Amino acid sequence: MKVFKFGGASVNSVERIKNLTGIVKQYQGEQLVIIISAMGKTTNALEKVVEAFYAGKKEEALQLFEIIKNQHLTTAKYLLVTHYNACAAQLNDFFTEVEWLLHDKPVREFDYYYDQVVCAGELLSTCIISHYLNQEKIPNQWADVRDIIRTDDHFRDAGIDWHYTTEKATQCWASVTASHNILITQGFIGSTDENESTTLGREGSDYTAALFANILNAESVTIWKDVEGVMNADPKKFPDAQLISELNFNEVIEMAFYGAQVIHPKTIKPLQNKGIPMYVKCFLDPSLPGTVIHKKNVKNLPPIIVVKENQLLVHLNSRDFSFMGEAPMQQLYSIFAEARVRPNLIQTGAIGVQICMDDKQDKTEQFASMASTLFDVQLEKNLQLLTIRHYNEPLVATMLEGKEVILTQKTKETVQIIFKI
Ligand code: ASP
Ligand code: MG
């Protein structure tokens, strides 16, 4: 059995959905679990709906949601003939679920409402695609993944209940394979034991694919993207970025850690743990080889460049000239955990520490105010963090031309440099 994951860009139009169908047809006869994201930028649009709702602008929220509804109904109309009515009825159920909520007044935390509304994107896209595949004689079973993936109630970053999820996913797959070869379900979403919807973090569909692969012992996972495969740098910023045809799990974990937007960072562990290879392939040209990520060692990797924008350097200094020993460091790490801040780089000195992190306004303020109970705090904003794995000195020199370097950290494998924009 194989797991496929199709991201938002691969289903953002009627043509793209037909293209997906073409790809699935090439695998006819094989057992497939197909995980699909929301269409195009639907998740962003749904975020706007929740923001309006939470700001008390009910009419605006409903209007914004109306646009999303119409987009999906239009797509369904273009694609479906025989299966249109059944699909529209199912879409309407999802619309109603959201609209009911939008008619209420917000009384709980924002993140709760976020998940109840934003989860609709994946439900709508999979509903249309499942009906279309059935119409095109690719019999498949649709499932609401909220009946399978059980999570805690950490809304917007929910943690998986592996025990329950394993049981449900196994049961679901057994019942699917009794009559079909293909299961179609949603990425990114799950549900608590109280049937509240949850989400797994933006771009979380990759992670869902890895969960299913792990639980069902898939032979492989394929992530279908609009790029050739994994590149050694972001092609939008570096036009001569090159394809990396083979990577091992460790390298990808490192890349994700340093901020490369290859795949969702949580995706690798479930695959690595069971030695399940992941393919990153281009849905625009499935004949291209793409990238394989597996457990084999890979030698001679090119330099891998990751740029993180909008960075903040926090300078913390001890107030009384005491050393940055174990005690203050321990307190600092508790603050990271409590404020849910993930440092991108830490440089420790005798009486001070410098921490580079993403500059997210609310988080930054929260962190700075918590840290200020223990240290002198200074913030340096508008920075970039450049990470190069497998670097060489000439490349580093070229990349730094004309830049004002604030801090550099080097190991044998990796160099990280913070500079002013
Ligand atoms: N639709 C969600 C997002 O845009 C999840 C995903 O695409 O993986 O973040
Ligand atoms: Mg996506």
TrEMBL record:
Enzyme class, first EC level, given as a word: transferase
Keyword hit for Transferase: yes
One Gene Ontology term from the biological process aspect of the record: homoserine biosynthetic process
Keyword Amino-acid biosynthesis: yes
One Pfam short name: AA_kinase
Associated pathway: Amino-acid biosynthesis; L-lysine biosynthesis via DAP pathway; (S)-tetrahydrodipicolinate from L-aspartate: step 1/4; Amino-acid biosynthesis; L-threonine biosynthesis; L-threonine from L-aspartate: step 1/5; Amino-acid biosynthesis; L-methionine biosynthesis via de novo pathway; L-homoserine from L-aspartate: step 1/3
Keywords, alphabetical: Amino-acid biosynthesis, ATP-binding, Kinase, Nucleotide-binding, Transferase
InterPro entries noted in UniProt: AceGlu_kinase-like_sf, Asp/Glu/Uridylate_kinase, Asp_kin_monofn, Asp_kinase, AsparK_Bifunc_asparK/hSer_DH
UniProt xrefs under SUPFAM superfamilies: Carbamate kinase-like
Reaction(s) this enzyme catalyzes, per UniProt: L-aspartate + ATP = 4-phospho-L-aspartate + ADP
Domain Aspartate/glutamate/uridylate kinase: 2-281
Molecular function via GO: aspartate kinase activity; ATP binding
Gene Ontology, cellular component aspect: cytosol
EC number annotated for this UniProt entry: 2.7.2.4
Assigned protein family: Belongs to the aspartokinase family.
Name under which the protein is recorded: Aspartokinase
